[in-house]
Structures are given as structure tokens and as C-alpha cells.
Structures
1.
Amino acid sequence: MFQIIREFPIQFPYNFDYLPIIVLSYFSFMLVYLIVSPKVSSKLSKSFVNLSQAQKIEWNVRFTSTLFSMIVSIVCIYILLVDHAITLSPLIYDSPLVKTNLAIVMGFILSDMTIIITNYKLIGDAFTLSHHIATLFGYAHSLTYSVMPYFANFRLIVELSTPLVNMRWFMYACGYDKYSICFFLNGIVMTLLFFTVRIATIPLYWYKVYIVLDSALWIKMRNFRYVMIGTCILLDIINIYWFKKMFHGAVVVFQCNWQYYEKHHKTHQLEMLSAYKKQVLHSISFANSILRESTKHGLHKISSRFTDRNKLVPKILADFINRYSE
């Protein structure tokens, strides 16, 4: 299933065995964009037919990226949970499953870049292209030279947030009321999930990098170290920028929803406030009771241990006094 490479000095031969998978992935996602998405979307949503040309392109792009993200993120999580050897050997590791996943990623990125470049006037985004180029550059090194497989696979966790981001755009395009409960819940969950997989994982990722800095193998990685660090810093900056915009949008949507309910559904809003207040007070009371009981139990345990260890002190002291008082 896998092969951990530990020989010194380490060679980094080119490996183009997964080039057919990259090509297959490229044409598969182009097929989804050009044929599958328009046919499926026109049947699932009546709004798709009435969209503008730019919106239809954006719709098909997001449909394709949603399918891609679900495939890649599931494989990524499976590797992290099942293949423990990749965690033990994060710098050099040979796994067909990891490489296949990276090849699928590279094929999708190339197809997405093709679509963006050919339709740049309609959906062009320099920030997205920068993200794609950095990702492609880093994954190409990992796939071709079998280096940094853990770090390359770990970065794919971010794709878990893509479906909800795309779903929000789909709801915009379909004309969903921005005050609807579905729109509101999607925004909250999307922001929380985006933060969890793209922002909260940043310190975990760099902590893993810090751990391997002192290893002898890290010195042998040569310029691959700078490729990994440089591309990941750029990707983290882009994700932080995106989250900043997303968080600002989430705050605006929350305020708009709150003001809307305050104007049109004041009674319902007061009921919600009352329910939230009861829930918060109950949580605080529960937490205080746990803290109080745990503190009481801990003090009792400490005092009992102290008593057990020193229960002979009074007897020894009494014997000492009696001996010298005679």
C-alpha cells in the first residue's frame, strides 16, 4: 500500500506515472463543466435557464468545483484517518492513493484555470488565478518528487468548505430571499466551517512543520523546503483575505436579518431572545455546577491524600514529647 523512504543520501527522480490521471481528470472536469452541469442544472433548477451568460458560466464552474471538492476532501480525510504512515513520515512518503488524489487536484486546477482564462472578461479573478498557480506549483513538486506528502494532503482539508460557499452563490442566483432561514443558516454554517478548515488549521499545519525542522531528513529536502513554505504562506494569506471578506459579509447578513425580524416579527424576535437567554443561563449554571463539583472533589481528594500520608504525624509527635518530658 505504501512505502516509507529513509535512505541517505536521498535521490529525487522524476515520476510522471500519474500524468495520465492528470489528463483524465482535466478532461473529466471539462466534460462536467461543458455538458453535465448545464443538463443537470436545467432540470434541477428552473432559474438556471433565465441566468445571464456570465452567471451560467459561473454556475457551471461552481457545480464542477462542488463535485471536485467532495471527491478530494473525502479521499483526503480517509488518508489522514486510515493511513497512519503518512503522519509518521511526513517529508518523504510514497502512496498511490495520495498521488492519485493530487493528480485529480492538478487536473481540476488546470481545467478551472482554462475556463477562467478563456472567460476572463466575464468571470476573471486575479486572486483566484494566483491561488491556483501557487497550489499547482506546490502540488506538482509533491506529486513528481514524492516529497511533503503529508503537508500536501493536509492542505486539501480546505475543500470541505467549498460546497457551502458554492451553495450560497446558487441561492443568490436562484433569487432566494436573503431573510429566509435557509439562507441565514447556510451563511452561519459556511462561515464557521470555512474558519475551521481554512483558518483554524493554520497553526496546526505550521506546528507540524515546526516539528520536522530539527529532523535530519529536513536538511536533505533542499529547495523543496522553500517551495512548501513559500506556497503555503501565500495560500494562507489568500485564505485569511477570503475569510475576512466572508466574516464581514456574515456580520452584515446577521444584522440585516436581525433588523428585519425586529421590524416585521418583533414578537418572534423577543421569543428567540428569551429562548437564547434561557439556554445561555442554563449552560452557565451547568458549567458552574461542574466546576464546583470538580473543585470540591479535587480538594477532597487532595485533603484525603494529605491525611493518609500524614496520619502518623500526631502519634510520632506525641511519642517524641512523652520521651523527652520524662
2.
Amino acid sequence: MGIAGRIAYKLPSVKALQQHAAKATEERDALARQGEELCRQRDALELERNELAAHCRRMEAEMRETLDRQRGALVERDQILSGRDALQQERDELLAHCQRLERQLAERLEAEQKLRAEVNSLAEFHQDFMQRAMELIGTEPLLHRMRTDWDVRARMNALHYTNTARDEWDEAEYHATGEQNVSEQIRNDLGNICQGSEPSQMRVLEIGCGAGRMTKPLAGLFGEVHAVDISEEMIRIARRRLADVPNAFLYQNNGMDLKALPAEHFDFALSFIVFQHIPSKEVIAGYIREVHRVLKPGRLFKFQVQGGGLTTAQPLDTWFGVSYTRAEMQELASKNGFEMRHAVGEGTQDFWLWFLKK
């Protein structure tokens, strides 16, 4: 074989070269695609890494915040525990203080009971003293003192002493207080007072009329009003104030009985802010007996007295009167032919009684 033949045998053909070149191109393209894929993966990994790094930073921040909250919670817990201990100590101190107060209260209650017993003993002594004093001096000196004192008060300031709410009254305001009392104590109670009768047909008795403060409005409601008072001066003033009231009749009495008035003559009897000034139960009992005499059967006596408690009354004191309990009023009613229908205000200055004549 010649040299040309040998060269032809060693060199690849064009076709083989083309195939080889095509294959190399394919491999290069494959490598390029692989490189691009690797770049995409690298970019994705870098993005994921960055996201993970950001997430880790957030987690670290959250962890720090959590740790800070935990430290704050621990501090708060310690404060709460300290506060609880302080509250428990304060509670224990308060309990001890309450126990001391309870002991002191028990001691004071015991002392108060002893004091009440002493007060009751003094009250009994006072009542016994007054009874003996009245037995010694009799009622006549007392009635004279009552008459004199109320004459003096009438001359000084009759309107004030029959309504001490003010030092000075004008006529209209003074009259209005009588109207108010009649409205509250009489007009609001006409069922008990009238018992079916027409007020304009009734004859009523007022004990202790003073300057006629309630007498005038009573005369505007009832057919006749007969009023008595121990003070000549008060009666004089009342007659002047009621000169234009033809159905009002005024009398001065001796401060204890109603001798000027006939028996079974009245349909209703009233006394307000009068007996609270009388320092003698004998005098008040005399009035109750006399009212029973002058009232018609089945008719009502409504009156007010001092109620219950230790009185400051003295045998010849004509301002602070004796006081009564419900039981004492019940006994007075029974002894003098009355039925005690109602009793309101025991223990107060305004102790009201409704006595019905049997």
C-alpha cells in the first residue's frame, strides 16, 4: 500500500468530523444548559439562604423579646409575691386590729348596758322624785306657775313661743303653719276623726290653743271650735286674732280640767304641742279624764305627748314636760274609759295617740 493510502486510512473522514463536531456542540450545549441550571439552583439557594438568614434574625429578635418578657414576667412575679406577702402581713395586722376592736366593742357594749341600767335607775328615781315632789307641793302651785309662765311668754313673744321655728313671725306666715298642721294632722285623718259625720256639722274641742294658731283653720273646717288655754294673755291674743271667726269660742281654764264645758258635748277633741310642756302626769291624766267626760260616746281624742326616754322635766318646769311610753298610754286609756286605737312615734317628741271613747 502506498503513502496516500496510508494517509487516507489515518485521517477521519469529513463526515466523521462533522459528526464529532455536532456531538461536541451537543455536549457543549448540554454543559451550558447544565451550567445555567446550576446558576439557577445557585440563585435559588442564595435566595433561600437569604430568607433563612432573615428568618433566623427574626427568630433571634423574637427570642430576645421572649427572653425580655420572661425576665419582665419574673420581675413582675417577684413583685406580686412581694405584694402578696405584704398583703398577707397587712391582713394579719387588720385581723389583729379587728380582734382588738371587737374586744373594745364588747367592752363598750358592756359599759353601755351598765350605763343604760344606771340611766333607767335614774329615770325611775326621777319619776319617783317628781311624784313625791308633786305630792308635796300639790298641783295648785304648778298650775299657778304654768299660768304665770305662759302669760309672760305671751307678753314677750306669743307667736314664737307657740311655734319656736322662728324668733319672729309675720301674721300670714304664722297662720300658714297652723293651716299646715291642720292639713297634716286633721284633714289627712278625717276618716278616723269624723267617722262618717260631716265636718261642718261637728263641734270640736282644742286643748291648749295658745294664740289660736290652729284654732282659725280648725274653724274653717268644722262647724264649731271650742278652745281652752291656761294663759289669760294667750286667750286675749287669740280673741284678737280670731275676732272675725264667729264659730270659734275661746275659754281660759285652770290648766287641768274643763269645768266650763258640758258633758258629752263634743264630736272630737285635739291637743298638739301642749302636753309636751306639762311636767306633771297627774295634770295630763286630769285632762284625759275631762276629755272623756265632755266627748260624746264613740268619739275620738287625738293628742300628742313626749314619747319615752329620760325626761328633763322638773316639778315646776313649764317648758320640758314629762314623757310617756306606749304601755303607760295604754294604761291611761284603759283607766279612763278609752280604747287606744293607734299610737305612732313612741320614743320621740311627736308621740301621737288616738283614744276612742267607749
